[in-house]
Amino acid sequence: MIRNAVIILLLTAVGAVATQYLHPRAPMWHQSLEPIRDDEVTPADVEKRWHGDVLWIDARQGGIYDKEHIPGAILLNEEKLDALLTQHFEVLQDNKKPIVIYCDGKACHASRKMREYLVEHLAMNDVWVLTGGWPAWKAAHPAK
């Protein structure tokens, strides 16, 4: 009897984990465990506060950006920072919108590093990190 209960419990756990990794709109477990930081926003916050009217910055690697990114996002990462800053100089200089930076997810720190760079070196103030990054944006904007 105990053996059957353990088998059922294990099968249930395996099913839950498989669903978490395979479901396209599965909630992110780690996000619910950590409070959001003062300089972070969720996809819902972006819609609620600014109606999506922000300057998106993709801090991922260029090849990943080329495959898929938020529409209208510009690429700005540490890998090619000088060249990308030069390429996007006018957009950044003329920008009046809040800036929201994203990378590959909560465990990715590229967006946080890029935010720190923009605030410290370019004196930009209205700069935010998208909590959950690209996966959170994709979950909030499923393909139609």
Describe this structure in words.
The structure is a single chain. By secondary structure, this protein is of the alpha/beta class. The protein has 2 domains: 1-27; 34-140, Oxidized Rhodanese, domain 1 (3-Layer(aba) Sandwich). The model has no long low-confidence stretch (mean pLDDT 88). Strand 4 (99-102), helix 7 and strand 5 form a beta-alpha-beta unit. It has a 5-stranded parallel beta sheet with strand order 1-5-4-2-3. Helices cover 51% and strands 11% of the residues.
List the total number of helices: 8
| Low-confidence sequence ranges | none
The percentage helix is 40-55%
The ordered string of helix (H) and strand (E) elements is: HHEHEHEHHEHEH
SS-derived structural category:
alpha/beta
Overall mean pLDDT: 88
The N- to C-terminal Cα distance equals 47 Å
Strand order of the largest sheet: 1-5-4-2-3
Q: What's the quick description here?
A:
The chain contains eight helices and five strands, in the order ααβαβαβααβαβα. The chain has 144 residues and is of the alpha/beta class.
SSE topology:
Elements: H1 2-22, H2 29-33, E1 40-41, H3 43-50, E2 55-58, H4 62-67, E3 74-75, H5 81-87, H6 89-94, E4 99-102, H7 110-121, E5 127-130, H8 133-140
Parallel strand pairs: 1-5, 2-3, 2-4, 4-5
Which descriptors would you attach to this protein?
single chain, 144 residues, alpha/beta, Oxidized Rhodanese, domain 1, 2 domains, five-stranded parallel beta sheet
